[in-house]
Design goal:
By secondary structure, this protein is mainly beta. The strands form 15 sheets. Strands 5-6-3-8-9 form a five-stranded antiparallel β-sheet, with no helix packed on it. It starts with a helix and ends with a strand. The N terminus is likely disordered.
């Protein structure tokens, strides 16, 4: 769109204000829109103290952006997920405004928006809905005598950021509170503000933590006029006011020499405190691919929002130009292809309650195993999927408002390829530390190669634990390369026969991997069993057994047709015990007799089990205990097997009161496995949990102590 047509478009809209739509958002960030057919002009006005550096907009699933236009000084980029990200090194300060023009493929497109500060923290969010002007303009107020429930078991709220400082501003947002009612907000017993919910029981407001507040773990409390309350426990940190003096060299890290499609990058560096930073990426043909902007903090550090290399990014050499307004630094890298599994999330960050979605490609006509781990590294989903001739991979995992926030890891394994895909729930993801060996078992005359991944240039600690659970040697410090990769050669001379553990850690984050030294094959009789004789598609399998101590084994699973489904190298411990829990019946498994085969040299043993179709068994629901996923709250794990379509779940107390209502879409395997945070005010007792889908009902009980 050229400049003259843009001015004509704005003038035409100005002459047609009688049909235009102006929709105010929240009180502190005003977003107005003026629409004419497929074209919309959006004006953002900042009426609060925090500067706006980034403005994001996106549409519903039935609409898409065709083009956009920005004011001078702003840069826009349309992501593969259809989000337009506007950034600028000159922020919108209090009282200032900026306009953006967009064109959509249909008229009356509702536009979602989000305003972010220089650290990419959310300031405000909302939606422009041209068709709903009359509804939004009514803005009903809380009427005297309103008797609706103010706070229920379903009410919840969040603090942004999750680790606030003394004297800082915070964003408080909540859902499922009483509609159009007034609430007070407290830190422990000190009231620091009030707010009012909208007609849907939602609220979003800003508060300021007093400077006299002590840095400590506190209770943030939302309280209604009757004294009912909802609490959230978080730690308030000290004020960070240390400023780095003098000039800090402009640097950039986090970009390796070679990157691959689908890879996740955390780009950061140093520079003069307080200066803006702009990264411009130039493609192989000299065209500008994207730009990113942020600000150097008072310690001289800067970090961009994490990036995903799109799966359709052309191969070739790329150049990055980083500038702080005074000087520039240039780096280059190549996008190459040597991966057979390329999977990316549809968004780097999902909000609690959304469905985390992934898609990509893998080897066609080959099974792939997908395992999802929560922020603590606990496996919450695993299944084997058959990939058709297209090679396309699609995976979804539903979450709730109570699902633990943090970085989730999807592990995709196909033949000898293993890929780690990171995604954030409630926050942007971070790259955890990970450790892998080049082999499972070694001779004592060999040298093991240990590969480590983590955040670029960080220093991690490596410790080896011997078969007696004692440290083997001293802790080793390893500095990762600028691409976040590192390696260590471990000389095994002097290692006695047995099973060892290697632990790599950075702060409170750690990863553990086991390896064996000097084990033999074919040293004695093998006896294996499974813990059940009948399984359903999607069920995990625990294999237990005995043989001679410290023996190498190969364990293979076969379907009723004799087809090899999965092979796993394993070994017995120093007592001769065998234990493997990585096997699982595929979600599309054939009914019939399946076999597990364990072999070591000339010795072997088989165990058979029956696999029955889920439809023959109906639906089953169960509840089990879960660790403190966020380090504070108690959780339960709700598991449903044999589900079809959408499943509605109710938790009912012994007096018939409904405590919680949940709803999940069923996965392809018919299994749902979700953590659920136990409300602080939930009374001890026996509770009934009921699951209903379009065809079946299942029920179980659990106890809160």
């Amino acid at each position: 769109m050229n400049k003259s047509s843009m001015r004509g478009m704005i003038l035409s809209i100005a002459l047609l204000l009688s049909v235009a739509v102006v929709i105010p958002a929240y009180a502190e960030i005003n977003v107005n829109s003026v629409a004419l057919e497929e074209t919309t002009i959006i004006e953002l006005t900042n009426e609060q103290n925090e500067n706006v550096n980034t403005f994001r907009i996106w549409l519903g699933s039935d609409f898409s952006f065709k083009s956009f236009k920005t004011e001078k000084g702003w840069v826009g980029e349309k992501t593969p997920q259809g989000v337009i990200v506007f950034t600028s090194s000159e922020p919108i300060k209090k009282g200032e405004s900026v306009k953006f023009g967009v064109k959509t493929d249909k008229v009356n497109a509702g536009i979602n928006w989000k305003a972010l500060d220089s650290e990419d923290k959310q300031i405000d969010t909302g939606k422009v809905l041209p068709k709903e002007l009359s509804l939004l303009s009514e803005n009903p107020k809380n009427q005297e005598g309103n008797t609706s429930i103010s706070i229920s078991a379903e009410s919840s709220f969040r603090i942004v950021p999750k680790e606030p400082n003394v004297g800082s501003s915070i964003r408080v947002t909540g859902d499922k509170f009483g509609a159009s009612q007034e609430f007070d907000f407290y830190i422990n017993s000190m009231k620091i503000g009030s707010f009012e919910t909208d007609k849907d029981g939602h609220f979003m407001t800003s508060m300021k933590i007093p400077k006299e507040q002590k840095a400590d773990r506190v209770d943030f409390i939302v309280k209604d006029k009757k004294g009912e309350e909802k609490k959230l426990s978080l730690r308030i940190n000290e004020i960070e006011n240390r400023i780095v003096e003098g000039n800090v060299k402009l640097t950039i890290q986090g970009v390796p020499n070679v990157v691959h499609r689908g890879e996740f990058l955390e780009i950061f560096g140093t520079g003069k405190p307080g200066n803006p930073i702009t990264l411009e990426i130039i493609g192989p043909n000299g065209e500008q691919i994207r730009t990113r902007a942020t600000e150097i903090d008072n310690k001289g550090n800067w970090e961009l929002e994490p990036l995903i290399v799109p799966v359709d990014r052309p191969f070739g050499k790329y150049t990055g130009i980083i500038s702080d307004g005074r000087e520039e630094e240039t780096i280059s890298w190549a996008v190459e292809s040597d991966k057979v599994v390329i999977i990316t999330p549809t968004s780097l960050k999902f909000d609690p309650g959304q469905t985390m979605a992934f898609n990509g490609t893998a080897l066609p006509n080959k099974p792939i195993e997908l395992t999802l781990e929560d922020p603590l590294g606990n496996e919450i989903f695993s299944d084997i999927f058959e990939i058709d001739e297209s090679g396309l991979v699609e995976f979804e995992f539903p979450t709730t408002q109570n699902t633990a926030e943090g970085t989730y890891t999807l592990i995709a394994t196909q033949e000898k390829s293993k890929e780690f895909i990171f995604v954030g729930l409630g926050q942007l993801p971070t790259i955890p530390v990970n450790i892998e060996f080049d082999k499972l078992s070694y001779k004592s005359t060999e040298t093991a190669t240990i590969s480590i991944t983590g955040k670029a240039s960080e220093v991690v600690s490596l410790l080896i634990i011997d078969p007696a659970d004692k440290p083997k040697g001293e802790t080793i410090s390893i500095k990762l390369q600028p691409d976040g990769r590192g390696s260590h050669s471990l000389n095994l001379k002097g290692f006695t026969s047995g099973v060892y553990s290697a632990v790599v850690s950075k702060g409170s984050t750690k990863s553990t991997e086991i390896f064996a030294v000097g084990l033999q094959v074919g040293s004695g009789e093998i006896d294996i069993n499974t813990t059940k004789t009948e399984y359903q598609p999607g069920d995990p399998i625990l294999i237990l057994g005995t043989t001679s101590p410290n023996v190498l084994l190969t364990i293979t699973m076969f379907d009723p047709d004799g087809k090899e489904i999965k092979v796993r190298e394993s070994f017995s411990d120093k007592e001769g015990r065998i234990s493997e829990e990585v096997f699982r019946i595929p979600s599309d498994a054939k009914t019939g007799t399946w076999k597990i085969h364990a072999k070591s040299g000339s010795n072997f043993d088989d165990v058979e089990m029956k696999v029955k179709n889920i439809e023959q068994e109906g639906m089953i629901i169960s509840v089990s205990n879960n660790p403190k996923l966020d380090g504070v709250n108690d959780f339960l794990t709700i598991q449903v097997i044999g589900a079809a379509q959408t499943v509605k779940i109710e938790m009912i107390s012994d007096d018939g009161k409904i405590i919680e209502k949940l709803e999940f879409p069923s996965t392809s395997s018919g299994e749902i496995k979700q953590p659920w945070k136990i409300p602080k005010d939930m009374e001890p007792g026996i509770y009934t949990i009921t699951a209903k889908d379009a065809f079946n009902t299942a029920q179980s009980t659990f106890e809160i102590k």
